[in-house]
């Protein structure tokens, strides 16, 4: 007789089977509790949306430059119109007085007309850059005294004003350039293009120095700024002097004001970088290209600028440098102390900004270190 013992055997096997360890039970339980799935990053056509956000922030800088450059250059240069352009009529007669008043009344606000008694006096006022032009009519001819060294465009505007008057009276018309521009600077704008080279070289150098300022430290950052501004000015003077002869003599004088101008830009760039970061180049372009070249007087003198840029011309550093360089090059013996003062103030602002942002950066680092130390102490106490 056979006996079926399989159920008994199964019960014995189950009873003899060792119980799982607690960690194995926990592990098994963890498999039963499925974790909540996190949603993946949002995408657009397979590309994460964060990439497009980062690109949008990055492209703001070139878009700002495109809008700013277009607005600045077209706003300043698209329609030069004279306002209070200083001119004179040479003569002392009542007829001369009436003619000067009539000329002023024809277009109110365009010309600032006065009379001077002699041609010599008119020449002196042009050499002092008090007058843009002086009209000298006689019974048989008409002469216009101008200075292309001061501004060729202003001289051209004055010629357009007085040439029709001479022709209407059937007088031979002659233009006399009292202070001409240099032999190798026929347009009189060579110093302006030298300003462009100085400015671009300076703010590009500022970006390079600012990138290493944290590792250089404040002392070496300032020393490097001083040295590099001299190098940038030296390169510009070498190109403008020995190579193209835009500057004939006076190289050291113009180099000195160029060094001071460049130093201000570099220090301002170094000072702004800890605050603006990747917007620093855009800010420097705004200050030293968009607003600088348009208000400097290199293309159109202040009496042909729109009011906004004419206002900037009174204190902006590019206008100060160009006026000082023109005085040294073409009007020796005349004062330019106010220009040096303006350039010095810009350099002082740059130095102050650099020192201020350095102190703020040190304070920010110190506070961050203190927070880390506090968290470590709290972790030790909690343990």
Count of separate DSSP helical elements: 12
Q: What low-confidence regions span 5 or more consecutive residues with pLDDT below 50?
A: 1-16, 22-31
Order of helices and strands: HHEEHEHEHEEHEHHHHHH
**Helix-and-strand structural type:** alpha/beta
**Which sequence of strands runs across the widest sheet?**
4-3-5-6-7
Overall strand count: 7
State the end-to-end CA separation.
72 Å
Main sheet properties: 5 strands, mixed
Arithmetic mean of pLDDT: 88
Shape: elongated
% residues in beta strands:
5-15%
What is the radius of gyration?
37 Å
Helix content: 55-70%
Protein name: ABC transporter permease
Transmembrane segments: 51-76, 191-214, 226-247, 253-272, 284-305, 340-361
Region (Disordered): 1-42
Biased composition (Polar residues): 1-13
Offer a concise description of the structure.
The chain has about 375 residues and is α/β, with parallel strands linked by helices. The chain contains twelve helices and seven strands. Among the domains are: about 85-175; about 190-360, no CATH class.
Please tell me about this protein's structure.
Among the domains are: 85-177; 190-362, no CATH class. Helix content is 66%, strand content 8%. The protein is built from twelve helices and seven strands. Helix 7 crosses helix 8 (251-276), helix 7 (190-243) packs across helix 9 and helix 8 (251-276) crosses helix 9 (280-293). The radius of gyration is 37 Å and the shape is elongated.
């Amino acid at each position: 007789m056979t006996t079926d013992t399989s159920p008994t055997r199964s019960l014995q096997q189950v009873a003899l089977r060792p119980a799982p360890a607690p960690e194995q039970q926990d592990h098994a339980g963890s498999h039963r509790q499925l974790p909540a799935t996190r949603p993946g990053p949002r995408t657009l056509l397979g590309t994460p949306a964060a990439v497009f956000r980062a690109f949008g922030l990055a492209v703001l800088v070139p878009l700002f430059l495109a809008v700013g450059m277009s607005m600045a250059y077209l706003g300043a240069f698209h329609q030069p119109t004279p306002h209070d352009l200083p001119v004179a009529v040479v003569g002392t007669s009542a007829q001369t007085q009436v003619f000067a008043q009539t000329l002023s009344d024809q277009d109110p606000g365009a010309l600032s007309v006065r009379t001077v008694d002699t041609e010599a006096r008119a020449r002196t006022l042009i050499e002092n850059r008090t007058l843009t032009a002086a009209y000298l009519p006689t019974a048989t001819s008409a002469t216009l005294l101008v200075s292309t060294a001061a501004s060729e465009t202003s001289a051209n505007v004055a010629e357009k004003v007085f040439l029709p008057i001479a022709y209407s009276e059937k007088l031979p018309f002659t233009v006399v350039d009292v202070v001409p521009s240099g032999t190798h600077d026929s347009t009189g704008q060579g110093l302006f293009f030298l300003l462009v080279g100085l400015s671009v070289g300076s703010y590009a150098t500022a970006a390079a120095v600012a990138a290493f300022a944290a590792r250089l430290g404040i002392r070496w950052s300032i020393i490097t700024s001083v040295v590099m501004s001299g190098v940038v000015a030296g390169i510009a003077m070498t190109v403008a002097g020995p190579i193209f002869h835009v500057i004939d003599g006076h190289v050291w004088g113009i180099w000195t004001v160029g060094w001071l101008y460049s130093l201000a830009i570099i220090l301002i760039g170094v000072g702004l970088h800890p605050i603006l970061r990747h917007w620093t180049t855009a800010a420097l372009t705004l200050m030293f290209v968009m607003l600088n070249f348009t208000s400097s007087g290199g293309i159109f003198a202040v009496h042909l600028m729109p009011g906004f840029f004419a206002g900037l011309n009174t204190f902006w550093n590019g206008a100060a440098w160009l006026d000082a360089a023109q005085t040294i090059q073409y009007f020796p013996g005349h004062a330019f102390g106010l220009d040096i003062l303006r350039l010095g103030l810009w350099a002082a602002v740059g130095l102050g900004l650099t020192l201020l942002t350095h102190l703020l950066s040190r304070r920010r680092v110190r506070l961050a270190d203190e927070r880390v130390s506090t968290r470590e102490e709290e972790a030790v106490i909690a343990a």
